[in-house]
Design brief:
- The chain has no helices and nine strands.
- With about 190 residues, the chain is an all-beta fold.
- The chain has one domain: Porin (Beta Barrel), CATH 2.40.160.
- The protein has an eight-stranded antiparallel beta barrel with strand order 1-3-4-5-6-7-8-9.
- A hairpin with a 4-residue loop joins strand 5 and strand 6.
- The chain is elongated, with a radius of gyration of 21 Å.
- It starts with a strand and ends in a 15-residue tail after the last strand.
Length: about 190
């Protein structure tokens, strides 16, 4: 598939790294929850790809457990590695986002979070199960790293940085260019 018109990353599981410091307890590391990203315009060439734009949201935790909220918009580029029967995509996304991971406070007023808002870099790996038009299917693992923190505001004041890892399923829909017509007969000029 050379042109993916629309794609989806469905990420129902997160793992986070980061701590609030000052002896506060760390947040719950594994959090399930609804999450995903909408991808528009993924172009593929031999050995490389570029996603024009993708935007996503992840909401982790439940009513008994502190939660995670992550929202982002980014672009992504990478390489495609074909190893015979298998194919992998290794890429890097760059964009803006906001991440807030709540932890159980000790002596903290209100909700306590780690994370922040700013520029995120997002290393990603996909194991391609199917990559032929009209659809592609892959297993995806992505890290969301807060590279440049422009604000400690993450729906509340964040008391430390964090990195979020997302695991899930990737679906894409598009088409391959039509095959080139066979060459016509050669005409020889006199």
């Amino acid at each position: 598939m050379r042109l993916e018109i629309i794609g989806f990353e469905l990420t129902p599981l997160s793992f986070n790294l980061g701590s609030p410091g000052s002896g506060q307890p760390s947040p719950t590391r594994f959090q399930p929850g609804p999450g995903g990203a909408l991808r528009l315009g993924k172009l593929r060439w031999p050995g490389v790809y570029w996603t024009l734009v993708q935007a996503g949201l992840f909401l982790g935790g439940d009513t008994n457990d502190p939660g995670t909220i992550f929202a982002h918009i980014e672009t992504e580029a990478g390489v495609t590695l074909n190893t015979g029967a298998h194919a992998f995509e290794l890429g890097l996304g760059v964009g803006a986002g906001i991440l807030g991971i709540q932890y159980l406070p000790v002596g903290c007023d209100g909700s306590c979070h780690i994370g922040g808002a700013g520029m995120f870099v997002s290393p990603v790996a996909r194991y391609m199960i199917r990559q032929a038009a009209p659809y592609a299917v892959a297993v995806v693992a992505r890290a969301e790293v807060l590279a440049l923190r422009s604000s400690s505001n993450c729906w509340d004041t964040c008391h430390g940085r964090a990195t979020l890892f997302l695991i899930g399923l990737d679906l894409g829909f598009g088409f391959a260019p039509p095959p080139a017509p066979p060459p016509g007969p050669l005409i020889q000029a006199d």
